[in-house]
Amino acid sequence: MHVLDLMENSVRAGATSIAVELEEYPEKDLLVLSVEDDGSGMPSGDIDVTDPFFSTKGKKTGLGLSLMRAAAEAAGGKLDTGRSRLGGALVRASMSMGHVDRSPLGDLAASLSAVACSHPDVELSCRIRTARGTEIITTRDFARGLAGVHMGALAVARDLSARVRRAMHSLAVDD
Q: Model's pTM, two decimal places?
């Protein structure tokens, strides 16, 4: 749910491009999950965007990043935020792959397909890297193969989800 929350935050920040990366480094016992965009970015200065009482949405709380930080730290890792190479926000969580308190990854495929369907004008990319190789799936490449099909169609969501699941399976992503 953290990834879905981050992607929705990206959309609210005006992003037209969102990149999700999942990287496993078994030799280092390290799992890295990052989301970056070309939106308006995060506030700079002395503001702690992971503070549960900080929000840019006009609410009294902003639990998304604080909960993600807590999950990363519980698994022996950390959460970093900053400027994306795309020009917007970058959120990167790193943690121990084998840590007993590491939460399962969840359904990355469903999160990506939900955002693709609900925001068909946003270009998504997903890079999955493991010791077995790297797969990159983008909605731009995906759209070329589906000429005439609206990117918000249910069939698109199912196909995108299936492609991400196949990539994760072929690369033996450890959940």
A: 0.84
